[in-house]
User: Fold this.
Amino acid sequence: MSKHNYIRALLKQPVERTPVWVMRQAGRYLPEYRKARKKAPNFMEFCKQPELACEVTLQPLQRFDLDAAIIFSDILTIPDALGMPLEFISGQGPVFPEPLRDEKSLVALQEREPLGDLQYVMDAIKLVKHELADKTPLIGFAGSPWTIGCYMVEGSGSKTFSQVKRLLYREPTLLHALLSLLSKHITQYLLAQVKAGADSLMVFDTWGGVLSGPCYQAFSLDYMSEIVAGVKQEAPHIPITLFTKGGGQWLEAMAVSGCDALGLDWTTDIANARHRVGNRVALQGNLDPCVLYSSPEGIRQEVKNILDQFGSHPGHVFNLGHGMYPDMSPEHMQVLVDAVHEFSQS
Amino acid sequence: MSKHNYIRALLKQPVERTPVWVMRQAGRYLPEYRKARKKAPNFMEFCKQPELACEVTLQPLQRFDLDAAIIFSDILTIPDALGMPLEFISGQGPVFPEPLRDEKSLVALQEREPLGDLQYVMDAIKLVKHELADKTPLIGFAGSPWTIGCYMVEGSGSKTFSQVKRLLYREPTLLHALLSLLSKHITQYLLAQVKAGADSLMVFDTWGGVLSGPCYQAFSLDYMSEIVAGVKQEAPHIPITLFTKGGGQWLEAMAVSGCDALGLDWTTDIANARHRVGNRVALQGNLDPCVLYSSPEGIRQEVKNILDQFGSHPGHVFNLGHGMYPDMSPEHMQVLVDAVHEFSQS
Assistant:
């Protein structure tokens, strides 16, 4: 058995207390992060400097009693390494000025081998692992094929996802070819992260929730399952967590994907989720991040609610149902982390 | 029994064919709508001219064999009538330059009686009813208290809903006071629409899906139930449809709210929804609007899928799971409407 509560919880083994980490725990809500970011204002350039990525990965662990670190990176490193120019525009998020909309653009990408250009991620992982000295486990991650594909086809975030869905309904073969290509690269990318030292892996499916049930299965979950199978073949001991934001209606299907744990957003009742997935997978989540705007007492109450709802079974990793927002208070994050440990020990 | 298939379907009575109407069926995808809008480029000013609202309400019925009309208006007419200045900024949607964030702003609103300033909606309904001559039923509508409240507190649309949730978690009493006030006005507003001639009512809860289950119940559904009870007390014969976008996890709770029908977005499997709500309510929905980007044959296939999934029980109103987008093709809308009738007659 691993010495880490976080790893044990993912494997549904007994823990001393419920482990906690928080999506975007290294982020703009931390003044030390904002300071570090000034060393390389361009976001992708920042990600590509292993020393800086290492520095900010470790920042939240110096403040809070967190049970896991997650490597500082972005879900769009793969299209960047495939040669699609990527810009981060303030207030608009990531933008591909030349989105992928036709077969010609796809063929151009098919010739690329992105893994070599992603070495900076592996270098950052190695640096972090050295610093952590196995006191805290490190999470590696990737975006899901569907989510990365959404950005590549839309060219940016979207309210309607009209472009990628136009492809889905009109040219499904082309979209499947793109998603297959991404799945292959993501599998290799995650395995390289394991080789570099990642102790666990997470796949972020930020946009799976905009699909109908059958389309979610065919265009998102099937590819994530393929990735899980590919990773498990070479690294069977590494726990994998799948997180589909807005995926609360499809937990049963996700639970048989071969992964070890499911991330839940806050719209799903965690007791109900536990009932639905049974003992097949561990669960990660799922406090509404906006609870951090509440008072310390309010935060403690909501943390207790989630822990009580999950119950005393093994298999719970506490997290928010989405990432931290920039205007949140580090002091309130402290209250959250301590409350998880306090209430789950008793 | 009503002579209208649409009304009969809402009441779970037998129909000759599945009725169909489409959210935002009067909208920018129609060239005649874009032309009419030029007569009053300011969106709220346009809404406030009953002749123009009547004209565009009827436009889709002149093109398509639709089973219901919906009065052309906006969910933000109530805060506008409460005296909150509202602007529609191109590409950004509705904006309140002075959002509601404290008790003082709420107290100022509490002194207003908005119904008198909403007479233009009733006038538009009367004009439409005269033109329809009872050949097609007319739907009246309002936004849900939570959804209108979100816009009033955020000041605009939001990705995170940080402002309104800050209020929810820090000052729930203030938020409840706002939602109570809105519920009271919405009830009166809907009853006035019935008095003016609306044959059925719909409540649009566009943002209920951003809440946790318990918060959805307390801050959205409870208020919608209050509205349903208030309307039913004075107009028991008018069917009411509740639509919470992203509400697929809460259908059981919605089904016991006293309403007659639930609107479904496309992420929910309609066969599963039908199983979960049993015979308690009719269902409206739920094609992914992006299916309209597909080929005519693709659209027909997806329409058939939804009809097959729902089955031959009474109680289905066909619709999209969300409104039409401006770049959609009227010809494809035609294919959709005709396919619903063709496949449900056989």
User: Anything to note?
Assistant: Chain A has a mean pLDDT of 97. The longest strand of chain A covers residues 138-143. Chain A has 15 helices and nine strands.
